Amino acid sequence: MIGKQSASSVARDLFSRQLASATRAGGEVDLKALGELVVSAYENASRDQCRIEQSVASMMQKLDEMHQRLVDAFEVLPEGIVLFDAEDRFVMWNSRYAALYGESACELAAGKRFEDVLRTTLERGHFAEAVGREEEWLAERLASHRQPASTQELRLANGRWVRVEERRTANGGSVGVRIDITE
Questions:
Q1: Domain for residue 72, yes or no?
Q2: Residues 95, 52: one domain?
Q3: Residues 136, 144: contact at Cβ < 8 Å?
Q4: CB–CB of 161/182 below 8 Å?
Q5: CA quadruple 58, 60, 66, 68: dihedral positive or negative?
Q6: CB neighbours (10 Å) of residue 55?
C-alpha cells in the first residue's frame, strides 16, 4: 500500500490515526496525548528536515565534483572546446579555445550570445577573410553555426588557421571544437 501512496499521504494518515487516538469517548480531546503527538510530530519534522538538508548538501557536493571533472576534462584536451546552450549562449569553454582567439577572447562571457560575440569580434577585424564582405560573412558563419554538420576553416586576424567543427547536443545546444591547423 505504501508503494502506491506518497510519503506525505502516509504521514497524514498516520497523524490522523494518532489524533483519533487522542480523542476520548464523547469527542473530548486528551490534551496530554495531543501535546505528546504535537511534540512527536515536531521532532519527526526536525529529523526529516535535517536528513533533507544532509541529502541536499551531499547532492550539491556530488554536483560540484561532477562539474569539476567536466572542467578538468575540457582543460586537458589539446583542441579548443566550447559549449553553447539551446539559446546559443556561451556556457563554458576551455583555455585552448580562448587562446586560439587571442585578444578577442575578452569578449567571451557565460550567458553571452554567440552572434553578439561574433559581431563584436568581426567589427574589430578579427576575421581577415570577412574584410569587405562582413555582413555576408556573418550570415554564412551564423548559418553554419546554427546548422552544424560540416567542417569549416577560418583564418583569424593573428594569421592562424582554425578548423571549426560544431555538433548539436540532445538538449538543442551545441558543442564546438576548434583545431589550430596553421602548420
A1: no
A2: no
A3: no
A4: yes
A5: negative
A6: 10
Domain count, the chain: 2
CA nearest 21: which of 13, 35, 33? Answer: 33
Query: Each residue of 2-29: pLDDT tens digit?
Result: 455 676 676 677 767 776 776 766 777 7
Instruction: Order across the sheet with 80-84: list the strands.
Output: 90-93, 80-84, 174-180, 161-168, 151-155
Q: Which amino acid is at 28?
A: E
Burial bucket for residue 178 (CB in 10 Å: 0-12, 13-18, 19+): buried
pLDDT tens-place string over residues 131-183:
888 899 889 888 888 876 778 888 887 788 999 999 889 999 999 999 999 98
Q: Please tell me the distance from the alpha carbon of residue 109 to that of residue 103, in angstroms, as a whole number.
A: 14
pLDDT of residue 1: 46
Query: Residue for cell digits 556530488?
Result: 62
On whether both 43 and 85 belong to a single domain, the answer is no
The domain boundary residue, chosen from 46, 67, 88: 67
